[in-house]
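Chapter review: from sequence to fold.
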Amino acid sequence: MKILVAGGVFRHSAEELAKREPAPEVVLVDGLRRRGIEVRACRLEDRGTVALARESDIVHVHHLSKAAVLAALSPLARPFVFTAHRFALPPTPLQRRAQRMVMSRATAVVCLSQVEAEQTTSRYRLPRSRVEVIPNGIGISSDVCRPRRLAPDGQIILLFVGQLIAMKQIHRVIEALPDLPRQVVLRLVYHNDELECRLRERARALGLLDRVTFVGQRSGPELVEEYRRAHLLVLPSELGYECLPSVVTEGLLTGLPVVASEVGGVPDQVRDAGVLVSPSSSVSLAPAITTVLQAYEHFANRALARARTAANDYSVDHMIDRHLDLYQRLMQKGEM
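The C-alpha cell string follows.
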C-alpha cells in the first residue's frame, strides 16, 4: 500500500516541525510509517503532485485547498480521502463551492467527531457510508495526569494554548479577569503571535499586565509542564472554527479541567470535566470560570476520570488503526 498525505504543515522544514507540537497530518504520517506503510508527505502547494500521483494507491488531502480541488478533479482512478479539520469564517462564495465540490467527489470524508459527521452528511447530502469518524490522536501519555487542588490564597493559573488569532477570541479571557479574584492569572502559550500586540494593549488598558503572561511557544516536555502547572484550560473559540481541538484533549490527559466554547466536538471531549460556554463574544467567561473555581475539587476529580477514558478515545494507535482500516476497505472496494 502506497499513501500520499498532503497537508499545509509539510511546507515547514524538519527543524521548524521539531519546534511545534505535531500536527495531525504529521502524527498520521509518522504512525503509518511505523506500521511499515510506504507514505509520501506532500505540501499543499505541490498541486500537480497531488492531482497526478500515479504511484500512490490512495491520496489523502488535509484542509480545503487548491490541492484538494485538483485531487477531487483528478482523472486518475484511485481513492481520494479528504479531512477538512476546520473551515475559516466566514467562507467566501468561492470557498463554499469548492468545499461542496470536494465533499461530493471525495471517496471518503474523515470527520473528527460525531457532531461534525452529522453536520457534514446533512450539509453536503452525503451517504453516511462515505463519512468516517476518526478523532485526532494525541501523543501525551496519561502517566502525566495528576490530582490538582487550589492552594488557599495561592495563585490560580488559567491557561490558553493555541494561536493568537481572532477566531480564538482570547480577548474574552483577558476581559474576564477583572471579575475574578486577583490571584487568578492568565498564561498564553502560542506559536502564532498575530494578535499579540493588540492583546497586550487590551491587557494594559485594563490594568492587567501583571496578571497576563505572554509565554510564547512551548512544545514537548515544556508544554506538558504548562498543562501540569495550570488549574484551568480556557478556549473560547468562535462558532464553526473548532472541530476537535487537540489542546482540549492534551489538557484533559493531564487532568486539567476546561472552560471552552460549546462548538464542534468540544462537548464530547469535555463532558463533565469542565463547563461549556456560548461562543458569542458578548457573553462573559467570568461566571463559568467562577463555577469551576468554586467547585474545584469536583471538576478536578472529573478531569482525572476523563483523562483515563480520553487516553483510549484519542490515542495515536487508535487513530492509525482507523485510518489503516479505511484505506484497506477503499482499496478492496476499488479492486471489486
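Two observations follow directly from the output. The chain has a mean pLDDT of 92. The longest strand covers residues 156-162.
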